[in-house]
Amino acid sequence: MIEFSDVGQLRSPIVVAAFEGWNDAADASSAAVEHLESTFDARVVGAIDPDDYYDFQVNRPTVSGAGDARKIAWPTTRLSVASPTSGDSDLILIRGLEPNMRWRSFTDELIEAVHALGGETVVSLGALLADSPHTRPVPINGTAGDAGTAARFRLDASKYEGPTGIVGVFADACTRAGLASVSFWAAVPHYVANPPCPKATLALLRRVEDLLDIEIPLDDLPERARAWERQVDELAAGDTEVAEYVRALESREPETELPEASGDAIAREFERYLRRRGR
């Protein structure tokens, strides 16, 4: 059971969760939650006991400092709380590693913690490698765990079948526990899989911003996303095979309407513009 400290009074808190590992191509989703932690000065209120869920030969602890200040940091999953200046809800932020064992007990602990902190809606973030060109907007697939949540947030119910990671397991457990569960997945170009991928992180944060109707300060993230795209352009320019492959991806008809072309997306972008102008 997770023990909490310094929680305070939370306003209708909403959970945003991401886990490093198989679910986190180019570290895009965990970077999104890390950005929320930094931007909103989140404070850690609790952590999973790592002894029960992690193999320390796979995810080794790290040591730092010198003399009396020397300490060991153990890999784990931590819960933080933050209070955005806009919106009517506080955030419960969950960020950690995909566990190596006992996934059901792991998710049970997290759901018990969400209930204890008063959360009723959980937004899980993930990122996967895909045949998506880096020159296009990052596709974000949003799904809901049940029909009621899908209708509430204007999303589709998940139809995915196949192997899953801790994001899928956690989202399913949330639905079974009576929590409104939403998942957003970013598609990272597989030919530039090394982290970071700020363009995918930015796309995830914008979907979170729209879903929660809050303003998320982006700092230098848009510029880092543009710089990342320029660097990949230079990579492709120097490699004929990569350049041809990118052109082939660009020539494909998108399976769905481009995100920036839909009426809902245009409306969301205009609302975001108004929020940033303080209206």
From TrEMBL:
TM spans (from-to): none
InterPro entries linked to this entry: Proteasome_assmbl_chaperone_2, PSMG2_sf, Rv2714-like
Xref: Pfam families: PAC2
Gene3D superfamilies from the UniProt entry: PAC-like subunit
Name of the protein in its database record: 20S proteasome assembly chaperone 2
UniProt organism field: Candidatus Protofrankia datiscae
